[in-house]
Write a structure and sequence with these properties.
Blueprint (H helix, E strand, L loop, with lengths): L10 H5 L3 H16 L7 E5 L7 H7 L1 E15 L2 E14 L6
Parallel strand pairs: 1-3
Antiparallel strand pairs: 2-3
């Protein structure tokens, strides 16, 4: 048997889970889990292109070989995600050499 606290309840009664405490705890967990997540169903991300400006390419002697973008889309369990990535490849420009 537990000890009696100031309000006349035993400490074991305070520890025993009740339906009210369980529902309050579940509600709190759901509220905290969804805080700031109002639009989780349709997410989209697009990386910004990183392009070496023409003046810098000329100064360092590089030419652009490829400049491509790739988009990846996926939908699962009612959630859709779109990711777009940009890539560029630069190579030394040997045409300017004499």
């Amino acid at each position: 048997m537990g000890t009696i606290d100031r309000v006349g309840k035993t400490t074991e009664e305070d520890v025993k889970p009740t339906r009210r405490r369980l529902l309050a705890g579940i509600g709190l967990i759901i509220a905290v889990g969804l805080a700031g997540c109002s639009d989780l169903r349709n997410q989209q991300f697009e990386a910004t292109s990183v392009i070496l400006p023409e003046a810098d390419r000329e100064a360092f002697g590089y030419a652009i070989l490829a400049d491509e973008s790739t988009t990846f889309e996926r939908e699962q369990a009612g959630v859709s995600v779109t990711i777009t990535s940009h890539g560029a490849v630069y190579v030394p420009d040997f045409e300017d050499d004499n």
